[in-house]
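Support request, priority: normal
Reporter: lab tech (M.K.)
Component: structure prediction queue

Hi team, I submitted a job for Transcriptional regulator, ArsR from Bacillus mycoides yesterday, and the status page still shows it as pending. I've pasted the exact input below so you can check whether something in the sequence is tripping the parser. The sequence length should be 184 residues. Please let me know if I need to resubmit or if it's stuck on your end.
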Amino acid sequence: MMMRLCERPYTGQLLSEKFGISRAKIHYHLKELEKNGFIEIVYTEEKNGIVQKFYQSVAKGFTPAADLLPHLEILSESGRQIFLQMTERTKSHILAAPEEAFTLRKISEDPAEWNYVSSCWEFDATPEQFQVWVKKFYEVMAELNEITKDADKDPNSKSYYISTTALQIGERAMQRFVKKEEKS
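Reply from support: The job had stalled in the queue. We restarted it manually and it finished. Here are the results:
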C-alpha cells in the first residue's frame, strides 16, 4: 500500500478495489499510517454527498527496517517481483513518453550532451567495490533532489523519469560470447 501511496493520491475505496481488501481494513491502515506521519490527506472531493479523502505518502520512497522483512528466501522472490514491476513501469513510461523525449535537441557525439539517457553496463567488481558505487549513486541522487527542489514551481520545468537497476548477474553477455568463441 505504501508503494502505491508514494506514486499518487488514493482514496480508501480505490485502494480497496486495487487490493481486493475490505474498505474497513484499508481505512484502519490508512488511519494508522496517517497517525504515524507516513501519509497525509492531500485533497478531498465530494461525490454523491460523500467526502472522499485522497491520501498520499509524505515521502517519495521508503526503506523498511530489516526486522520487518520476511525470511531471506521469501524476500529474494519478493525482490525479484519488485524488479520486474519496476521494469514494467519503466516500459509504460517509455511507451507513453511524448515524442519530444526522443528527439535530440543538440546534435552531438557526446552522450553527456543529449537530453535523454539510455544505457546498459556490465562490469566485474567485488561486493565491496559494488557497495562503494551504490553509496556514490545515492549521493548523486541526493544531489539531484537538491538541484531540482523548486523545479515544480517553474512553469518551464518538465517531468523526468529515472529507472535504475543494478544487481549481480550470472555471467556477462560478452564473456559468454568470448567463452563460446574460445571453445571453437
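Helices lie at 2-7, 12-19, 23-35, 72-96, 127-147, 173-183. Residues 72-96 form the longest helix (25 residues). Let us know if anything else looks off. Ticket resolved.
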